[in-house]
Amino acid sequence: MTQRPLTIGRLAKAAEVNVETIRYYQRVGLIVEPLKSLEGFRVYSSEVINRIRFIKRAQKLGFSLQDIAHLLESGEGHCNDVREQAEVKLKQIEVQIKDLQSIRKTLKNLISECNTGGESECCPIVQSLTENSARTSTKKGAGANRQDFTSATKY
Amino acid sequence: MTQRPLTIGRLAKAAEVNVETIRYYQRVGLIVEPLKSLEGFRVYSSEVINRIRFIKRAQKLGFSLQDIAHLLESGEGHCNDVREQAEVKLKQIEVQIKDLQSIRKTLKNLISECNTGGESECCPIVQSLTENSARTSTKKGAGANRQDFTSATKY
DNA sequence: GCTTGATCTGGAGCTGGCTCCAGGATGCAG
DNA sequence: CTGCATCCTGGAGCCAGCTCCAGATCAAGC
Q1: Residue A42 phi/psi, 5° resolution?
Q2: What is the pTM of this model?
Q3: Residue in chain B nearest A119 by alpha carbon
Q4: Domains of chain A
Q5: How far is CA A36 from the centre of its chain?
Q6: Which of A90, A129, A150 comes nearest B111 by C-beta?
Q7: Segment A65-88, tens digit of pLDDT
Q8: Which residues contact B9 (CB under 8 A, 6 or more apart)?
Q9: Do B61 and A94 touch (CB under 8 A)?
């Protein structure tokens, strides 16, 4: 059976991405542009399928396309480089988790205040957001996570 | 002491944001454009300072500007609406935390495989990202196949 | 009076990761 | 042969949330 040439459309289907995504990856250098057929169509090696899948999986782990470009470079070099990048990413993820946990705590406190606040016309959430010093809780020990909390935001 | 009019620059300082941010908030309707002085300068009410701080604090809790527009509307209405929005956001945050925790787990496993993998030329992280079925955790099978490795990194 | 700095309008540019479009050439099925 | 799908190039648009710019006007300090 003669295989049909792996054109961009078929590649896209095989790798489960949009054709435009492939073109985009070419533009930014994540995929090398292949030779063209006589008719001017790009014909891909089937290994590109794996490369695209690699990219997509790495994205799911929180790597940016730039990160991934480095990963792919390192992949040709030594394991240590890759592991190092993974460790950096792991640390970033852990910071994100902490920030979000702190946000969650604040939101929970605000919501519970709201529930217990009776029928006051003055919403404790709105109040808290308006006040000069943001409180994270009315229960004691609220100040502890204030720093993590601010680190969640980029001005 | 006669107060100088609260122009956009002084407002920006007071609220600790960029002048352009205020203009932007006006453009998208988060801040109502105030009347202008005879010279054509906008003069703000000091309450706008609180409004901007509100916005900034809500952003730190993960609300988008659109969310915040709703919050500000609701704030003028009833507490229940605000609490509901906070609860929705809380759920979103919790999903994000779970996702990140799962990513963290995967990364940790990959890194530890890498550490125990000895001096294999074949990086288990790269392999794992290349394989057809993404594994999220496993200790065995970190050895095999050089083909996947090259197929992701070559093209 | 001159200089510096703040303000105005409006529009463009930035980041990341796509996604879409126009207009033309080609491949394939009926 | 016709018609539609697919391909090409190149450039624009989209999201959010700003940020910056040009060129004009105006205010405040020395």
Answers
A1: -75, 135
A2: 0.78
A3: B79
A4: 1-63 (1.10.1660.10), 75-155 (no CATH)
A5: 34
A6: A90
A7: 999 999 888 866 677 888 889 999
A8: B19
A9: no
